[in-house]
From TrEMBL:
InterPro entries tied to this protein: Nicotian_synth (IPR004298), SAM-dependent_MTases_sf (IPR029063)
Enzyme class: transferase
Name of the protein described by the UniProt record: Nicotianamine synthase
PROSITE patterns: NAS
Pfam families: NAS
SUPFAM superfamilies according to UniProt: S-adenosyl-L-methionine-dependent methyltransferases
UniProt similarity note: Belongs to the nicotianamine synthase (NAS)-like family.
Domain of life from the UniProt record: Eukaryota
Organism of origin: Eucalyptus globulus
Record function comment: Synthesizes nicotianamine, a polyamine which serves as a sensor for the physiological iron status within the plant, and/or might be involved in the transport of iron.
PANTHER family per record: NICOTIANAMINE SYNTHASE 3
Entry EC no(s): 2.5.1.43
Reaction(s) catalysed (UniProt annotation): 3 S-adenosyl-L-methionine = nicotianamine + 3 S-methyl-5'-thioadenosine + 3 H(+)
Keywords in alphabetical order: S-adenosyl-L-methionine, Transferase
Length: 275
């Protein structure tokens, strides 16, 4: 098992230690700086050769911690900006104040392009699992790409959903097409058969078992022929987000394409069809 064979791992240990010593993960200069450094460390395609399965136990644990801490910080950042945006009369016109809005525009464009390669018609109903307080993927897709499709967003947190609903409430079109459901998707069964496409957010299922359970549930209840869009990670970006293994985690689905971005879009995208 390799631990210190990569200079990258040493750098990640340093950042992990600094992040763990923070008093809080709420957005502030120190938190923003450290997570920016973490992302920039993991981004270069030169790290794509890293095989996380060869890392020693200590490095594996550090990786799990970074994913969990990053997920928590991301949730707090989104909640913070959802509150700010919610204070405007027309939040939808101010989305660019979110610092990573440009990334969402690129990710939505990428996912739409991949979807159109495998979906012959415009989907009527789409589900987004794990939408959070700032559901930019749904909003950007609904505004720019799937302009007649209805989006059903699922999140377990009622406060996240109320903040999210506030963002679109002043827009007559989006408020009819973008809907929010407060529930655990593992308890959603028959409704899943209504969707032509289901998006699974990167941070639904923070570890391998949880992620596999979510995908297995979707595989059981989605309608035959429906498309599943799964976000994953590749190379050193696996220290930022959980990985979906196309060989072992997508039983019941036919994998149609896998795309690993090399730019500031961090997530890989897997497109699969329910068998």
């Amino acid at each position: 098992m390799v631990c210190h064979g990569y200079p990258l791992i040493g750098r990640l240990y340093e950042l992990h230690e600094k992040i763990c010593s923070l008093d809080s993960l709420n957005p502030c200069k120190d938190v923003d700086t450290l997570f920016t450094q973490l992302v920039l460390t993991c981004m270069p395609p030169t790290h794509n050769h890293i095989d996380v399965t060869t890392l020693c136990k200590k490095a594996q644990q550090m990786r799990s911690d970074l994913i969990r801490l990053g997920g928590e910080a991301e949730g707090l950042l989104e909640s913070h900006f959802a509150t700010i945006l919610g204070s405007f009369d027309r939040p939808i016109e101010k989305l660019e104040i979110f610092p990573y809005y440009g990334n969402y525009l690129k990710l939505a464009q990428l996912e739409f392009t991949l979807l159109t390669q495998h979906c012959t018609h415009v989907p009527n109903k789409v589900a987004f699992v794990g939408s959070g307080p700032l559901p930019l993927s749904s909003i950007v897709l609904a505004l720019n790409h799937l302009t007649t499709t209805s989006f059903h967003n699922y999140d377990m947190d009622p406060l996240a959903n109320s903040k999210a609903a506030r963002l679109i409430s002043s827009d007559p079109d989006l408020s009819k097409r973008v809907l929010f459901h407060t529930c655990d998707v593992l308890k959603v069964t028959e409704e899943l058969k209504e969707y032509d496409v289901v998006f699974l957010a990167a941070l639904v299922g923070m570890d391998k078992e949880e992620k596999a359970r979510a995908i297995e549930h979707l595989g059981r209840y989605m309608k035959s022929g429906a498309i599943l869009m799964v976000r994953s990670a590749h190379g050193a970006r696996v220290f930022l987000y959980p990985v979906v293994d196309v060989q072992s985690d997508l039983g019941g689905f036919e994998v149609l394409s896998v795309f690993h971005p090399k730019d500031e879009v961090i997530n890989s995208v897997i497109v699969a069809r329910k068998c």
